[in-house]
Amino acid sequence: MKTRTTLKQRQRAKTRKKVFLLLLPIMLFAILFIYYPFIRTIINSFSLVNAKGIIKGFAGFDNYAYTYGRKDFLPALRHTLTIAAINVPITLFITISLALLANKKRKLSPVYETLFTLPMSVSMSAACMIFKSMFSPSVGFINYFFGLKLGWYESQETALAAVLILTIWMGIGFDFLLMLSALRAIPDQIIEATRVDGISPARRIFKVQIPLISPTIFYVLCTNLVLAMMTSAPMIIIMGVSSAASATNTLMSMMYQSGFSSSDYGLAAVLSISAFTLTLGFTILSFVFERRKVHYQ
Amino acid sequence: MKRKTRNLIQDSVVSTVAIALGLIIIFPLIYCLCGAFKTPHEFLTPKLLPGSFTYVGNFKEALEKGNLLRYTVNSFIIALAGTSIRLVFSILAAFAFAYYDFKFKNLCFFLILGTMMIPADVLLATNYLTVSRLHLLNSYLGVMVVSFVSASQMFMLRQRFKSVPKDMREAAQIDGYGDISYMINVLIPICKPVITTLFVHSFIALWNAYLWPLIVTASSPNMRTIMVGITKLNSWEDENYQLVLAGVCISLIPSLILFVIMRRNMKKGGMDGALVG
């Protein structure tokens, strides 16, 4: 009896050791490079931080008051929200339309599906360089093709428009794929039933197909909102942070500027936390919808 | 018969429209490829097509003067090593969650999944300070260290491991396989399709990363990755777009090849794995 319990205990101790070793690497790095910096960013936002990132004292809400009082903060917030508000509905419209078009499997399906999804493989910086060249006022193709004489980066509106076209293009591939797989997961009997009932294609799309894929639509909506509000690379790459960047700055590109150009870590922390708070709700919602999406399939 | 021909016509019309739209969508890529073959002089006239597709001077100059060869090697090392380490970490953790019961199991699980709630961009500044304190700035390890944790990969692998029949493990145990040899000799070969998909995805993600490599390698031009390198090929004073587009083409090669492989995998039914980064 006694030996049996010790054997069991020994086995349990062995399991504990194994589990510890198996989980150690991922937990260590999750804590070191995700949880610690997250908590530290929150603390930094309430502290007096010097240019080396060392905390020199408690600052209360001073950093927040300073950041929100800056005259480049409101424009940055406005650009962030504008990009999200314009990008998301257009992306949804384009990807749902493409998915409806590609829904039925045809001989040439692989060809156009590949074309639609190809932007997925292009990196942000590569896309930025291509679009920067295309929108170039002097040698760019866009001005030439449409007969325009726009200096795209000179005014705030056109610069934002160029960034929006770029970010929408970046999102098409992946979101199309999600919409397509959702549409194809709708059981054939349902579509067949609408045909038997003589329901018009337009009615079928708006009353049957779109409502049925709504969990996926909401999922794409939430993830895209988060991504759009985190946009920073186009501003950094195309506009160049130092050069009058306030014309198109977003919260995250302003964060980059304050953290790495001027080593103002208090300001960077406040901007990070603000962007995080702005997106948190949508991040949580996207998890909810992802679950429902999986259930539905 | 009548319905069949009508369907056929409808399908060809829709296919044509779809391909036309597809060509518009990939137009930036076509433009990039064409631009890369233009001579600097040709680039001054904003026509789409170059005189011929035989001028490779831009590629040569980008690789040599732009140091892109070095950056490509850097990117390869970082993407390959980073992806491998990330996968190993995920496999180990997924194994623990799939096969063992232990105290705080749920807590640990949610701690790892919780990392998905925090966007990486928010952590940039603080991680930069950590990495610089660890003296990892301008090193390969410094560039990849923040991407070792992937909760979504860990989650996918756990789901897959759980779907492997329990008998398999018992049989392996009877044959004298320990946990590690079971994992290496049985589990990983069984789950190869999912692991391949995750590998491809990770590789593309790390290959394409921009902001973090930019920050970490800021003071050492030799350590840049290719995605940072291509943005340094031009400036407001010296636009050099033909050079930039050649660089972009080079940077796109690996991700496009992997993309095609991934598409093939998806058709084989690995769709679920294809949608996680």
Describe the fold and architecture.
The complex is a heterodimer of chains A (297) and B (277). Chain A has 13 helices and two strands; from the N terminus they run H-E-E-H-H-H-H-H-H-H-H-H-H-H-H. Chain A is mainly alpha-helical and 297 residues long. Chain A folds into two domains: 2-45; 65-296, MetI-like fold. In chain A, a hairpin with a 5-residue loop joins strand 1 and strand 2. Chain B is mainly alpha-helical and 277 residues long. Chain B has two domains: 2-43; 57-166 and 192-274, MetI-like fold, CATH 1.10.3720.10. Chain B is built from 15 helices and no strands. Chain B has helices at residues 2-25, 27-36, 40-43, 57-64, 68-99, 105-114, 120-133, 140-144, 151-163, 166-174, 179-190, 192-208, 211-216, 226-229, 241-274. In chain B, helix 5 (68-99) packs across helix 9, helix 5 (68-99) crosses helix 12 and helix 12 packs antiparallel against helix 15 (241-274). Chain B is globular, with a radius of gyration of 24 Å. Residues 269-277 of chain B have low confidence and may be disordered. The chains are: A mainly alpha (297), B mainly alpha (277). Chains A and B meet through helix 1, helix 3, helix 4, helix 5 and helix 6 of A and helix 1, helix 2, helix 5, helix 6 and helix 7 of B.
Short description:
With 297 residues, chain A is an all-alpha fold. Chain A has helices spanning 2-45, 62-69, 73-102, 109-117, 124-134, 141-146, 156-185, 188-196, 201-212, 214-229, 233-239, 251-261, 265-296, and strands spanning 47-49, 55-58. Chain A contains 13 helices and 2 strands, in the order αββαααααααααααα.
